[in-house]
Amino acid sequence: AAPHCRRRDPRPSVDRRSVSPMARDFADWLEMKEPLVKLDEGSWDFPLAKSEKRELLLLQIAACEREAVWDATQLRSRQATSTGRFRRELGTG
Hints:
Layout: H1 21-32, H2 50-90
């Protein structure tokens, strides 16, 4: 995931050994997710109004797009590195 998505909670963490593997995996996933902040700097009130549901959906789509672009950039970088290394090994680059 993108580095801007890897946010750490400032609160003290729970002893991870006392938590089930599924809960640990969920906590890890949750820590990596980008926070979805409302556009008007307000807070999310539940249940969400229809307009808030749309806003949340658009924020989620935008966050996923940023993460996909970052992942693709990282993949291209790794491919370029390995292609250059392969060419040097063959003596063609």
